[in-house]
Amino acid sequence: MNLAKFRPSARLWPVLASLGVLILLYAGGCLLFENFGSLRVLINLFGDNAFLGVAAVGATFVILSGGIDLSVGAVVAFTGVLIASLIGHGQPPLLAIGLALGFGAGFGALMGALIHLYALPPFLVTLGGMFLARGLAFVVHPESLSIDHPFYGEFISQTLSVPVSRRLAIPFTAFALIAVVLAGAALARWSRFGRNVLALGSSESSARLMGVPIGSTKILVYTLGGFLSALGGVVATFYMQSGNPASFVGLELDAIAAAVIGGTLLRGGVGYIPGTLVGVLILGLIQTLVIFQGTLNSWWTRIAVGGLLFVFIVLQQLTARRRVG
Amino acid sequence: MIVDLVLWPTLAALLWVNRRRPLLWPLVALALLLLFNRLFTPGFFALEIRDGRLYGTLVDVLNQGSKVMLLALGMTLVIATGGVDLSVGATMAIAGAVMARLAGVSIPVALGGGLGVALLAGAWNGLLVSAFRIQPIIATLILMVAGRGVAQLVTDGQIINFEQPALVYLGNGSLLGLPFTLALVLGMFALTALLVRRTALGLFIEAIGDNETAARFTGLPARPVKFLVYVFAGLCAGLAGLVAASNIKSADANHIGLYLELDAILAVVVGGTALTGGRFQLAGSLVGALLIQTLGTTLYARNVGADVATVPKAIVILAVCLLQSPVLRAKLASLRRPAPTALRKEGSV
Question: Contact at 8 Å (CB) between B139 and B226?
């Protein structure tokens, strides 16, 4: 392969730029802090941000279709509480997880149906979904509920993790994240559904004229979003070993930010699922850097994420304009 | 009771005056909610005068609802241009933080600083939307994400308390027996209404919201108008932030204005302004804000926890969305008079 002839298309630039930011952040961390380059930090980066990554893949699909999902954080919290509560009442964990995933998919399908059938703005419908799921989470259980079951204690956090050395293991959640990203990327790139979503996001009227089934695609994409939010909630219970109805407030913003930083255009139609993983890892790295630094306060994370969002949105705008012009 | 003698005839008159106007449905909802409380929530209508000042649940509704009413005024104009401002909650936090920080210097500096920084926040959003031509929902997302961090930076992560009587008066004082915040809201409403209905500005805003390209071709200064609208939303958010900080006599960067941007958007939509832009209802937005606040207070008075209270709120959002849905309206219209005119293209957003 001749590298001199490697010309990435204009649409790929944002993804390459965010990959560059990721590498810079990681290299900078390694130079500044002694143990930053250790395998443990790298593994934790994947394990700790797995729930965000899984939910962000769902959010990316919805954004690709030209919509938006504000209910992500609330559905993640609801799923966690539902699972914790069901297991607390003596139900088998797998049944609890299955019910939670089913709920997430059904919830997403309901929002998608409202959006499609009544031509409602996704912004408002998923806002309603956010309030609904958040409130229902408090109905299920009003406060944090820890999960005390051998399935969670031993099976997930010990049997299913892959030991690297005597004191270090790759958690199951990291594998779940990678599996979801790969499956999502394949779905977006090579399936009919993925192409329909991209067509719908580029232009709904053209997609309709081309014979893309608008209704079913729209409903399905919100179903997928709800399902992946719920899966993110399941992954979060593996990680936190508890469910809390007040947790994950604002997670939808992180998911949207991850998608945008990963090169997904917020107006829909253009984006890459692996890019979202890059975005999630950048958000995670910023957090790790702030923690390593020690004296910086956590609000710097928010400012840094906002700054990055700004840079990438402007970058998107510039590349988009060049394509038109 | 005297409240009944004043309130119900007023409501009836308002409904009659607005019977053919878009304000009717939000007013009907508000009237029904108040009627429900009159019948089933004991003490909801109780008012008493202490130290020359009215106290009671209805007064609380007005006082607590003032923040969303202020936000809704700015948000109405933003939504009318076809945009949306997600950052007003974060702007409130910044304005409150700056005021608390400067409270020790002098009162005018504290108030001016808080409002000034809010204007800057609005100008930032306006610049992104008008000059950089970034989609409003995305442009304002930046400040929504980063704004609370900036507010934390201003307060140094602390909750700053202040005691200055003038600053405390802003959110807790009373004027002619009614909360001062009510006067503030009415003043801002009068100013805004004057600005948009007595000058061509309102027409410009509606034209831009209807069809920006067409508006520009007719020679309207679309970009400056859009910029100004975001600056105005910033100003309203700043005022709301000062009131919110004054209410609790401190600046809490984490909680001031949290989720209020959503309440403000909801108030505007409930009030009859479509999210797609164009025609706007300034008074409708105020009624919408009151409706949301009355609903919240009703639930609180009936011992529904604040956490669970999001469920009825969600139902209201979805119900209002459905009522305004063009598809559903067309279906209802075709039920009423089964004529072939009901044929519409489905699924058009």
Answer: no
